[in-house]
Design brief:
Helix content: 40-55%
Number of helices: 20
Largest sheet: 5 strands, antiparallel
Structural class: alpha+beta
Strand content: 5-15%
């Protein structure tokens, strides 16, 4: 249940006209009162002799207790209370109880005998509107300070008592949701999303990996946004606003949104903290491709491989670092997701975009980020953007699977950190992100793991036996489980290829699980495949290897056999996303 306090107004009759009207799209059905301050207010919805003017005069009567110069300029209090989508349809009697509890909790009518006059109007199954006049019956102003937080607290109690969907309490760090007017406007224009939402995503993408004001604004311009900058008399840039080129108001003027109105961390000062931290931080290693066997990968694949390494290192920080440093890494993870979504092939792009959108809520909390420590992740986001679009096949497609796998670990670690800190909404957002990544991973990994599976099935018996021995030596407690998995053959092929390059398979396996648990994975083998291929500098796409091998001579470059179905990774603990470990 979500109560929302709207801006105070000065026209009671105008608000009543809207509530009792048909709505902008005929969406108001059977408008009527469900409750009022005295239980006897006229209802112009169901009483033919009552008018909206009658109701307005009744509500505003306490204003006449004050002289004209004492009356508040904005005396109309308005609160909507909406049920969750999966809640049952409540009766008028239930909504009446909810209305009385909300006005009491917010100080509008605290049941002290002299509260404000109010009514509750219902014109849809899933919500009501509360309207009150902000003058009490004794002529005093009500104590409705922090009424929004008070309404939220009461809503949590109502949910519990009525068995409704439990909404996670907010902490004031979420981006502002689109208003009803913005949603209706988007519907009229045939847009899937509101202008606010489109602008927020576009600005987020422009920020991802950007290093200067100039680069940021160049990206906004390239995305087609109209930009309005705000400068001080000295010429120093203070802020910015953006608009869609075809989003205008009733007067035909462009509708601009400042960065802060889009999200708390998209104001210019907060954005600048990112690249200011980059300058202060020490240099970080750039991804390289010289050691990768086979055909030299393109820029998109190199960027993905480097991002996988950066994500892998960030997991350690999120699990064991100080809170301010962790917050910086979590925020930078959002930039990586944005950059990956805008540069990936079509078959994973939708899920990756949804993952980035979901994680936007998880990227902010009241823990202030210590920028600069996130330099490696921000560089990874920058490399993804400058690496350009990735193809959906070959090394591009396989390294996409690799980086999604590593990001899944990082998102999981972020979810656990948020849960530990009591950031309920952020933890839930990270869990949703993980589900989108899970789907994107299945699409990206099917082909490259299928190639490895077939290569593993064609290994000679002595080679396969050597890899089995190495597995049992490195992971004695998990060996039998891994050997029973369909993905074991992909892992065996990876171990054989690493051996061809002079690596010790036992040492590789031991290093792959160091400081990482694997017990919670349904498919340990495919997780180990990506770790080993990254560590041993093997190409993510095994079909790019030569068609022969010194270990068995049975590797094949390509195959038309159907790819193996990937096992589904199960969830971790309650309230957290599933793990890939």
């Amino acid at each position: 249940m979500i109560p929302q306090i709207h801006k105070q107004g000065s026209h009671t009759l105008g608000l009543l006209a809207y509530l009792y009207g048909k709505g902008t799209h005929e969406e108001h059905i059977d408008p009527h009162l469900v409750a009022s301050f005295d239980g006897m207010a006229p209802d112009p919805g169901r009483d033919a002799s009552a008018t909206k003017k009658d109701l307005q005069q009744l509500l505003d009567q306490p204003l006449h207790l004050l002289t004209a110069d004492q009356r508040p300029g904005k005396h109309v209090w308005h609160c909507s209370v909406r049920a969750a989508p999966d809640d049952p349809i409540l009766t008028d009697q239930q909504w009446a109880i909810i209305a009385r509890r909300i006005v009491a909790a917010t100080g509008i009518d605290p049941h002290d005998g002299a509260g404000c006059r109010w009514v509750a109007v219902r014109h849809a199954d899933d919500h009501i509107h509360l309207v009150a006049t902000l003058v009490r019956e004794d002529g005093r102003r009500p104590d409705h300070h922090r009424s929004g937080k008070r309404a939220q607290a009461e809503a949590r109690l109502i949910e519990q008592e009525l068995g409704l969907h439990r909404v996670a309490p907010g902490d004031g760090t979420a981006a502002k949701r689109p208003t009803s007017a913005e949603r209706h406007k988007a519907q009229r224009q045939g847009r899937e999303r509101t202008a606010r939402e489109e602008l927020r995503e576009t600005v987020r993408r422009a920020v991802a990996g950007a290093a200067t004001d100039e680069e940021f604004f160049d990206r906004l311009s390239a995305a087609g946004l109209v930009i309005r900058k705000r400068a001080a008399p000295s010429g120093d840039l203070l802020g910015y606003k953006v608009a869609l080129p075809d989003d205008v108001n009733k007067d035909g003027e462009l509708v601009f949104y400042s960065g802060a109105r889009l999200a708390p961390d998209l104001s210019l000062p907060r954005i600048r903290e990112r690249w200011t931290g980059d300058v202060q931080a020490q240099d970080v290693p750039r991804p390289h491709s010289e050691g990768v066997v086979g055909r030299k990968p393109g820029a998109a694949a190199v960027a993905r491989r480097g991002t996988a390494s950066a994500a892998w290192q960030a997991v350690l920080v999120v699990e064991h670092g100080q809170d301010a440093v962790v917050a910086a890494h979590v925020a930078a993870t959002g930039e990586v997701l944005d950059a990956l979504a805008q540069t990936s092939a079509a078959y994973t792009r939708r899920e990756l975009r949804q993952a980035a959108t979901a994680f936007e809520r998880a990227s902010r909390s009241h823990v202030r980020a210590a920028r600069g420590h996130d330099r490696a992740l921000r560089q990874a986001a920058r490399d993804l953007v400058h690496g350009g679009p990735a193809l959906g096949r070959g090394e591009d497609g396989a390294t996409t699977a690799m980086v999604i796998d590593m990001l899944f670990f990082l998102i999981t670690a972020a979810a656990h950190w948020h849960a530990k800190k009591g950031h309920t909404q952020q933890a839930e957002a990270a869990a949703r992100t993980a589900e989108h990544l899970r789907t994107a991973y299945q699409a990206a990994a099917a082909q490259p793991l299928g190639v490895l599976y077939r290569q593993g099935r064609h290994l000679s018996r002595p080679v396969l036996q050597r890899q089995t021995t190495a597995l049992r030596a490195a992971l004695p407690e998990l060996a039998e489980q891994i050997l029973a998995e369909p993905g074991w053959y992909a892992l065996a092929a990876t171990l054989a290829q690493a051996t061809d390059l002079g690596h010790d398979p036992t040492a590789l396996l031991t290093g792959a699980v160091e400081r990482r648990e694997l017990d919670s994975a349904d498919s340990i083998s495919d997780v180990l495949v990506w770790r080993l291929r990254r560590t041993a500098d093997l190409p993510a796409d095994a079909s790019s290897l030569p068609a022969h091998s010194s270990t068995g001579g049975r590797f094949v470059a390509r195959s038309t056999a159907p790819s193996v179905a990937l096992p589904r990774r199960r969830r971790g603990g309650e309230g957290t996303p599933g793990r890939t470990r």
